[in-house]
What we know:
globular; single chain; disordered C terminus; nine-stranded antiparallel beta sheet; mainly beta
Amino acid sequence: MKQKLAFAFYCMVCIFCWLPAMAQDMGWPRQVTKDGATLIYYQPQIDSWDNYKTLAGRMAFSLTPSGGNQSVGVASFTASTDVDKETRTAYLTNIKVTDVRIAGQQGSSTANEEMLFRKLLPVNEQSIAVDRLLADMHQDKSDVKTANIKNDPPKIFYSTNPAVLLLVQGKPVLSPIAKSDLQFIVNTNWDLFFDKKDNTYYLLADKGWYSAKDVKGPYTMTRTLPKDMSKLPAGENFDEVKKMIPAPANAQPETIFYSDEPAELILFKGAPVYTRINGTDLLYGANTDNDFFVDSKTQKFYVLLSGRWFSAGSTSGPWEFATNNLPEDFKKIPSGSPKANVLASVPGTVEASDAVMLAQIPTTVTVNKAEAAAKVQVHYDGTPEFKPIETTNLQYAVNTQDKVIKDGDIYYLCFQGIWFMSTRPEGPWQTADAVPQEIYSIPPSSPVYNVTYVTQTDATATTVESSYTAGYLGMFIFGAAVGACIAYGTGWWYPPYFYWGAGAMFPIYHPWPMTYGVGAVYNPWTGGYAVGRRAYGPYGAAGSSAWYNPATGRYGRSASVQGWYGGRTSAAAYNPWTGGAAATHQGHNAYAQWGNSVATRNGNAIQTGHISTRNGTVAGYRTNNGQSGIVHTGANGTVVRNNNGNVYAGHDGNVYRKDAGGGWSKYNNGNWNNVQHPAGNNANRPNLSGATRDNISPETLHGLNQSAASRQRGNFQTQRFQNWQRGGGGFQRGGGGFHGGGGRFRR
């Protein structure tokens, strides 16, 4: 296809370029004013986030009654959370204040101030940037559930000359083109044709045509095409192919690398040019789209592919898995480096920890059981066919693109993030209240493994709560010896399914998602993988280049890509991990296609980039009448952002302030007193209040310093994400990662 069309589809992987900038954290602290009384409450300090659904934490606050004096205190609370990953915003609901402590006071005055605090504290949903929560959670060393994914290196090609990677999943599947002797190969990532007259393959790769007698090559550039090329039908993306007929006379030849299994291509633009990363022995390839490094000390090469590191002593290999034993210098890559994006895949870094935590945060909706079940249909190619799932007593359907699992006489369907059940493989289906526990023991070697990341709980007569985490969309946590990381795909190669119907001229073809050959690169702002490279063709991955239409009995063609938020195409959007499909130009998550009558979040309608609620406008909420902003006006008064956020709740129940010089002061009896540090060295910390110094324990001081560092990093990350979002949510491969800039996929 012409480069213009291919580039347009690469641009589509830049997730969120359409998101509204208003859906953001309004900042901290926040101030409430009502009936002359004022409450300032500071950014919560998180003590735990159980299953990324229930928060427990504490917050410092100051309270000034109408006509009274200011008092300061600490409030402990719990809250349920609902996370919108598209805007990186957590919404706190069911907020319950479990304890209120007023510094230096007791008795009836404390009771009155506690009552006023509870009256003023907003009880509606509160928003907070996910990055602020993640920064606090780095203090929590809770265990991480990892997947036993496969990390064997794929076939890796290397070139310093112009080249493309031609992937065919298994044997070529040829589909006839009406009124011609031509056939097009369905299961490939480039436009590949076969002419039955001269038994020759014709490949349109990037800017030129190539021919070969064998599908595996070798391919040579040609300017002579079969006459039947003029008979290509209109539509089905053939229009772009027709623009390349006759073959361009000025096209420059490229090397064609062929593989019938998942593979990757390391492609330099000429002789390698390396740039040193300051403070390390690492150099990175500056003239390649790959994340390619050289350790100058050992002369070893390293490449990052689908979240996994591989190393070799030579660019020709052999390559071996290296995530577990990366040189320490990878951790020293500066956050401002053009290669800082790889830090999310370096075990032991804060960026990797962020990615792992984000992957565990569930997307949750409340499902209307009757309406959901009414929309479900499953199509099989022929009679439903099931195969055993190893290490279990379960079976899965192989001749459908939907995930149907057989447990005894009951069939379970995971469809767009919701579980259904039936006594027949074709349905009718009813929404399940829960599924057998054995489903969650399905191993990664099974092509339906991703359904183990979907749960169904809290069922009532009419509704059920459905949740999924990153694994459902093809992103998995794996346990490196020095820390957990995330990877794209299970690493397993699932052979495609072929079905020859009675009298069929060509088989029906069902691919499974691929780990390699899709150019997957982690985007720390979306929490998922952006996919697509020019060298990998206009169709992203071979598994999603064609779709079978049971109504016509033929294949359609669409340029779709695999990605965290689903497929994006001009003809049909298809996510090979979830089986979701929709006629849309936007990306979609698993629940977005159901509609507001089926799936809702906390009873509020799901909107693009925001949640609509009748409770008012709060920090990125938009009301049903369309108003928006960062100020909330409701029954509890007016909430605005305040600018001084350096007050903290200590673990000892006291309120502390971080001073400009880096020291700490404690609030006591209306004054801020410099604290006596455990080391006793306060010579450079003058007592600005004139009061005596207060003591502080080493544990409390350590906790305060951690909270201050976390708040600083959370604020920095939040601002970076908001700048990225305002700039269009663009992604630049091979030159600095993710940045603002019009939402384009920049090369």
